[in-house]
Design a protein that fits this description.
2 domains, 6-stranded mixed β-sheet, alpha/beta, Purple Acid Phosphatase, chain A, domain 2, 25% helix
Length: 375
């Protein structure tokens, strides 16, 4: 049976009403543009005859009740269904404090956007005939009350039951934390592992067992498509962080059963506060990159002396912006060989068979067509 539908993904909105904005000299993202950028995106998306919109977490700056309230009221005005999941910024505390809502409060704000039963912070919804969405919660709290990215055992059991009962329907999964590594050794890297789902391998085993091929994530603030043994993790950069991207996707299945996903990425080029948003935002990120770069260079696996890191860091001011852009090409020929080789591992041109129809190296993080089967 043929199947065709169009949808969009906008991630890590970090919505912040003006009076709630807090500042930090090293923050990479421009929450100042959160509302104007989202409105700009919606002006485009409402012209496209979308079937639905996915928002994979970090909807708000830091879980403020007024920001959640504003967003759910805004989403209710849109002409297509919207589905959300919580990010770490949406539910930063288990119990409500002066700044943020309680973890258990999140679904009650979004009963029209996936959470028909707000007593449960994950869900399954019928999007179209033969197509379902599973929205997962990847935010847990350990015995010390600290937030960790993990799917609890009860949720995993529920997920297996839902997948087993879904038969041959197409299942899309949305979760905030990354499921497949998007950066070199991401699961074990001291700076990057917090963006990974701690029990991602357990989730991947379940997805493979039931033939789920498409997972949509956020959190990392980069444009990247990663692949692992049949599962594509499509992560979308943050709307408030360079390059302020969003994606429009079209799924197709022909009458021979061949399935493919066309992906086009767009960017917010301008908002009233920043008429030249792309240039201003890249500059903003570079200006605030030094503390991050020092950590990158002095931590494992490079473990450079601080004095050497300080000499190399200025040349890397656009390192993270280039990665966030997607399809990164990184080469620093004047660097020491060990450092140069390590930095190059962040390039998008690393061999990754299965990512493209031909298996050849190509730029796939922003605009591509993924062949999902060969039937």
């Amino acid at each position: 049976m043929t199947l065709n539908f169009r949808f969009a993904v906008v991630s890590d909105l970090h919505v912040a009403l003006p009076h709630t904005i807090w500042d930090h000299p090293s923050r990479f993202h421009l929450v100042e543009v959160s509302i104007s950028a989202f409105k700009s995106v919606l002006e485009h998306l409402t012209q496209l005859d979308l079937d639905f919109l996915l928002l994979p977490g970090d909807l708000t700056q830091h879980g403020e009740p007024e920001n959640h309230a504003w967003l759910q009221q805004f989403l209710a005005q849109l002409p297509f269904p919207v589905y959300v999941v919580p990010g770490n910024h949406d539910v930063p505390v288990l119990l409500a404090d002066q700044q943020s809502i309680a973890f258990a409060d999140f679904p009650y704000y979004y009963t029209k956007f996936g959470y028909e039963d707000p007593r449960q912070i994950y869900y399954i919804r019928q999007l179209l005939p033969g197509v379902k969405l599973i929205g997962l919660n990847s935010n847990s709290f350990n015995e010390h009350g600290e937030q960790v990215g993990c799917l609890d055992a009860k949720q995993l059991q529920w997920l297996e039951e839902m997948l087993a009962a879904s038969g041959d329907e197409l299942i899309l999964v949305m979760v905030h934390h990354n499921v497949v590594e998007h950066l070199p050794n991401q699961s074990n890297h001291p700076l990057a592992n917090r963006y990974m789902l701690a029990n991602s391998q357990e989730l991947l085993q379940l997805l493979r067992r039931y033939g789920v091929k498409l997972v949509f994530t956020g959190h990392l603030h980069v444009q990247d498509i990663a692949y692992s043994q049949g599962v594509y993790d499509i992560t979308t950069g943050s709307l408030v962080s360079y390059p302020h991207p969003y994606r429009v996707l079209e799924f197709h299945r022909d009458n021979q059963g061949k399935e493919w996903l066309e992906i086009l990425s767009h960017r917010v080029e301008s908002v009233p506060e920043f008429p030249d948003l792309q240039q201003s935002s890249r500059q903003w990120m570079g200006d605030r990159s030094f503390p991050f770069l020092i950590k990158l260079l002095t931590h494992s696996p490079l473990n450079l002396p601080l004095s050497q890191a300080k000499k190399l860091a200025p040349s890397l001011r656009d390192f993270w912006a280039t990665i966030a852009d997607g399809d990164a090409v990184l080469d620093y020929p004047h660097f020491p060989l060990e450092v140069r080789r390590y930095i190059e591992t962040y390039s998008a041109s690393q061999p990754n068979p299965g990512m493209t129809i031909t298996g050849n190296l190509t730029m796939i993080d922003n605009n591509t067509t993924l062949l999902l089967n060969k039937s």
